[in-house]
Amino acid sequence: MSDLVFFAATFVFFLVAMLYVYGCQSLKGGRDDA
Amino acid sequence: MTPNGWLQIAVFFVLLLLAARPMGLYMAQVYERKKTWLDPVLGPVERLLYRLTGVDADAEMRWTEYGAAMLVFSFASLLLTYAIERLQHAIPLWNPQHLAAVEPYLAWNTAASFTTNTNWQAYVPEQTMSYLTQMVGLATHNFWSAATGMALAIAFIRGISRRESKTLGNFWVDLTRGTLWVLLPICLVYSLALVSQGVVQNLKPYDTVKLVEPQTITAPGADGKPATTTITTQTIAQGPAASQEAIKMLGTNGGGFFNANSAHPFENPTPFSNLLQMLSIFLIPAGLCVTLGRMVGSPGHGWAVYAAMSVLWLAGVATCYWAEAQPNPLLHGVDQRVLWAGPGHSLSSGGNMEGKEVRFGIANSALFATITTDASCGAVNTMHDSLMPLGGLVALSNIHLGEIIFGGVGAGMYGMLIFVILSVFIAGLMVGRTPEYLGKKVQAFDVQMSMLYFLIFPVVILGFAAVSVLIPAGLSSLSNHGPHGLTQILYAYTSAAGNNGSAFAGLNANTHWYNVTLAITMLAGRFLMIVPMLAVAGNLASKKIVPPSLGTFPVDSTLFTALLTSVIVIVGALTFFPALSLGPVLEHLLLRAGISFS
Question: What residues make up the domain containing B104?
């Protein structure tokens, strides 16, 4: 049971990190930085 | 402090300086996929790996793809290590002591720890991990996490050097080349050098030997009454230590094969192995400064960054050495001065020897403690919990500055480059111009992402530390109360977030609370900081390069080094000084007043 919980926790963390990547990218949006 | 001690510190600095340039130029060759003398051997291996894994070595990645590949790789390798730990009892390979499966909380903490290059160890390795787990589960991570850090630093450097580009390179290629061309060859030679000094490398069961002098101890028995036992034998742990020791230091991982880490005579037997270990911690991070200079076309900028790192390193080692060479004011009637046995021969180096190996003495212990916390290594040859309050303050502050004083392999460089962005931005504000960094305009998005990078670090450290001092699950692990207890907790979360791994080991961290929260801290301190860093790199790569003008701030000057150093110190001090004042600073003042806590 604990193994499943830790697998799920790992999955959720990396899923959030992945979303965070695209969140940061979307923050840039239409800025004229480049 | 002794002249001999200072001489050894100076020798270390000179040797590092001599090694940095060849190392840095070699890494630039490797990552720019230029010819190296190892190509005839490693080229076919590299091509075979790409063929087996289906990697297109010529495909370039945007920063989002680069980050996603890194996250997928880390996720899979974390789960692999977790599975090996949980199944080690059932795998009939390299487990001569028949060690049981690692319990789930500890297994997750350890898997997160080694994936993030932290190597925080809430366990006694020789009593917990089979040889298989040490080699396949942990040592492989030492290579992978180090190669990942180096790849990310190179991606950031490409972000600076490329113009109007949407890509930062290929994560899989950078990971493979860093492992094959840099880490593996050095570790092969380095492991053999360590074996020559007496570091063990075998797959034998542990030895049991008869004690020359049997020991009699009295301790409470099962019925609570004092019972006397005579111990006549000792178990001596064995194992493949040298192969793990080499990458442990070179990859700034720091996880010991034995519990005593580099204070153990089988991990660090001689003064020469000690010097090698200290040099190898800084070798790649120092070399990366030269790689930076080469790849961005400004060698002077690389050396300016190297100089800022050196100034902060020197300040740390001088303070730590001075603090540890002071007599402990609570040891009344004990002669703690340097004892001389004639010109050039001291019998005692003087000062605080608690928690230190007599064979290394105070200078080499202070030097090692400073280096291991400057870099995000975390290997120890002295017990940090036994440092004097101001010595412990140095170790703690080194990590608080963001592990950028040479820093972890790769992580130190990209962390430092984020500080460079901030310094250039501040310099631009001071003169009222749009800041530029090597011809790239530093604009709103770059600064926003940099601030996100800086804020995650204190949020996880101070947040979890604050909760831990309020709840029984946090407080029950303390071995000391008062300010030292606060420092133990603060150090644990600092070490985890900085991916350092050293500890004030009086804290019992093998509890559900600490195993889970420290694992989250390690993951956040690694991956949630990498993402905004890559965002800055990707954004910089997409910019045009503007020609230098009169208002351009030169980043290869002494003024730049001074500004960069000041920004690092100010950011670190403003963020953590309140917590430090309640921990090591208060402990120092109380110690001077003769007050201590049990």
Answer: 3-201+240-592
Residues of B in contact with A27 (CB under 8 A): 445, 448-449, 535
Does pLDDT of B282 surpass 70?
yes
Complex ipTM: 0.91
Hey, is B420 helix, strand or coil? helix
What pTM was computed for the model?
Answer: 0.93
Q: CA of B213: how far to CAs of B70, B216, B230, B589, in Å?
A: 54, 10, 10, 42
Residue from B523, B530, B534, B536 to probe the interface with A (highest A Cβ count within 10 Å): B523
- The domain total for chain B is 1
Nearest to A22 among B64, B452, B543 (CB): B64
> Which long-range contacts link B90-98 to residues 24+ away (Cβ below 8 Å)?
B91/B130, B91/B132, B93/B132, B94/B130, B94/B131, B94/B132, B94/B135, B94/B203, B95/B130, B95/B131, B95/B132, B96/B131, B96/B203, B96/B204, B96/B205, B96/B206, B97/B130, B97/B205, B97/B206
Instruction: Report pLDDT digits (tens) over B106-153.
Output: 999 999 999 999 999 999 999 999 999 999 999 999 999 999 999 999
Burial of B70 (0-12, 13-18, 19+ CB in 10 A): buried
- Identify any residues that bridge with B382 across adjacent strands, giving them in sequence order: B356
Of A1 and B34, the one with more pLDDT: B34
For residue B206, tell me if it sits in a domain: no
- Mean of pLDDT over chain B: 92
- Tell me whether residue B488 is in a domain: yes
Q: What angle do CA B229, B260, B276 make, to 5 degrees?
A: 145
pLDDT in tens, B583-598: 999 999 999 898 888 7
Rg for chain B (alpha carbons), in Å? 24
Say yes or no: A25 contacts chain B, CB-CB below 8 A: yes
B191 belongs to a structural domain: yes
Q: Is residue B397 part of a domain?
A: yes
pLDDT interval class at A29 (50, 70, 90): low
